[in-house]
Write a structure and sequence with these properties.
7-stranded mixed sheet, 27% helix, alpha+beta, single chain, globular, ph1033 like fold
Length: 409
């Protein structure tokens, strides 16, 4: 539903103006309106640009005039300040809580056979919605089920002949479309789904064996359907939905080519503020050498690993908490989205073998051999002191991505 913005200042404008600007750097903010009563509940809103006359919402009442005034005031103030994106807004007894909804791209893998040349020429992917068996019963291949779920900005690794040859970025949401006229698709039924994409041709292509074994061990069970079978052979499916951390690992294997892919994602999305000037340069540096990110991170932690106490900056790795590929433009260069770790810790943290609780205690994944920590010189009782709420927000997402259960502190 679209809700018109407030055209004049409300009685809460001053409080909201001061409180909401924190969302430029924080994920969540609480503003006390100093006035009880009113709507109780949560509503999602989406602010696309600062010139819009109305905003999107999941409000479930057909009468838009019943939309809560205080939440409408929040949406209008976000627009006025140019704070764009999707937000979950809750209100109870005069207290407004606004939390940014992360719009990280979803990851997919598509196996291209003879159609890979046509994908390159025509910039689209297509899959049937169903087929019919000999009895005339509808059947849907497991490799087709993910296609209708693809959204604008999602990333699709295009595989052919044992290599990832393209990375496709969805230009818009998947939509119903009749079968293409190309002979490559002629054996399928007419009804299907189409995804228009921008393509980044990988030069050189990335051999799947570069990451296969680690991917199978860490992420294969979370793919829908599984990307590799029990013999570690590639499954014969068309489209596979990948977990975010698995997609991030493949992006890491692309090296510097990931920068161009990120730029293409910015071009496809109209609800994320595009980095420009020094911020854009900082993002590139954060990926290639990480100069600015590294410098700010080391300064924040006084040039010392908070776990081992190693205080030789040249030996420390500027490790992102939320992976670079899953971070938005500001998170990529936010020093609070990082820890300066000794190399052994960095590897374990990046793989998701360990994480840290909100109190800073080390958390070890159930499947990881704890005895290896001792061999690596890492104290199982280690903990970080000096974490802030900004660190904790990132660490909560790290534990979620890596599927590490946080122990009670």
């Amino acid at each position: 539903m679209l809700i018109p913005h407030i055209q004049k200042k409300s009685e809460f404008s001053k409080l909201l103006k001061d409180g909401l600007r924190v969302l430029e750097v924080e994920r969540k903010v609480v503003v006390n309106l100093n006035k009880t009563g009113g709507y109780r509940g949560k509503i999602e809103i989406s602010i696309r640009n600062n010139n819009e006359e109305a905003f999107k919402t999941n409000f479930d009442n057909e009468d838009s005039s019943r939309f809560p005034t205080r939440i409408k005031a929040v949406a209008s103030e976000l627009r006025n300040q140019g704070i764009l994106g999707s937000f979950l807004v809750s209100h109870e007894e005069g207290v407004i809580e606004v939390e940014r909804i992360e719009n990280s791209p979803s990851f997919y893998w598509v196996n291209l056979g003879d159609s890979h040349k046509e994908v390159l020429e025509n910039n689209f992917l297509w899959a049937p919605s169903h087929t019919l068996n000999k009895k005339g019963e509808v059947r849907i291949s497991a490799g087709w089920k993910s296609v209708p779920n693809i959204k604008q900005g999602d990333i699709i690794f295009c595989h052919h002949d044992k290599r990832v040859i393209f990375v496709a970025i969805a230009n818009k949401d998947a939509y119903p479309s009749k079968r293409p006229e190309s002979r490559k698709y002629e054996r399928w039924k007419e009804d299907g789904y189409k995804v228009e994409v921008s393509l980044e041709v990988l030069n050189p292509p990335i051999p799947r064996d570069l990451f296969k074994d680690e991917f199978v061990d860490l992420f294969n069970n979370d793919c829908k359907p599984k990307l590799f079978d029990r013999n570690r052979k590639l499954a014969e499916q068309y489209m596979i939905s990948l977990p975010a951390s698995g997609g991030s690992m493949i992006m890491d294997a692309l090296g510097e080519q990931a920068i161009e892919i990120q730029e293409t994602i910015y071009e496809t999305k109209d609800d994320e503020k595009k980095p420009e000037g020094s911020v854009r340069e900082a993002i590139v540096k954060a990926r290639i050498g990480q100069e600015k990110f590294r410098r700010d991170l080391l300064k924040l932690w006084s040039d010392e690993c908070p776990i081992t106490g190693v205080n030789a900056p040249e030996l420390l790795v500027a490790s992102h908490i939320v992976p670079w590929n899953l971070s938005n433009s500001s998170e990529k260069v936010d020093p609070y989205n990082g820890l300066p770790l000794s190399p052994n810790l960095d590897k374990l943290f990046d793989r998701g073998d360990i994480s840290f609780s909100d109190a800073g205690k080390i958390i070890i994944k159930d499947t990881f051999d704890k005895a290896l920590l001792d061999k690596l010189g890492i104290n199982i009782e280690s903990s970080i002191t000096g974490l802030t709420d900004r660190h904790r927000a990132y660490l909560a997402r790290h534990r979620e991505f890596k599927k590490i259960v946080s122990l009670s502190d």
